[in-house]
Amino acid sequence: MAKVYAMIADGSEEVECLAVVDVLRRSGIETVLVSIEKDRRVVSSHQIPIEADMTIAETDFSDADVIFLPGGLPGSERLSACEPLIKALERQRDAGKRISAICAAPGVVLGRHGFLEGKTATCFPGFEKDFKGATYTNQQGVVTDGIYTTGKGLGVALDLGLEIVKQLVGEEVAEDTRKKIQYC
Question: What is the C-alpha to C-alpha distance for residues 6 and 128, in angstroms, rounded to an integer?
Fold first, then answer.
């Protein structure tokens, strides 16, 4: 079974995170919500408390098919400053496994740390300034280039979730989930 670790921090954008988690779980993909904070409880960018499944100290990500990063501020900054997460992303990249991010996170996390070098990606407009050696596009809501899938922001969170489903378990499952949630 495919497995996704969805990261969350104090200040993460809750809908970007939870919409993707919801789509993945509806599609039968094991999806674990991981707090980078000291405990499982985080408070989102819009002051909504969320209880994660585990903390970052409770996993090594070795069984991850995808590590997903939501946007939001200051959540993206907190993810970017989280050394264990950056190390996990490096291991994920080096193993040729997928990484996904949306909104501010493609720039603030992946771009700043050089993960997107030589790739085409998207993000919330303005955060492309952090892309190191990457090509920014605003022509698509969701962009996949190699192992990286990036999204512009909240408005494409369902699209991003469905793209990850397609990558992990196929177009048929993604289409079935799209129909079940009445997404046009």
Answer: 22
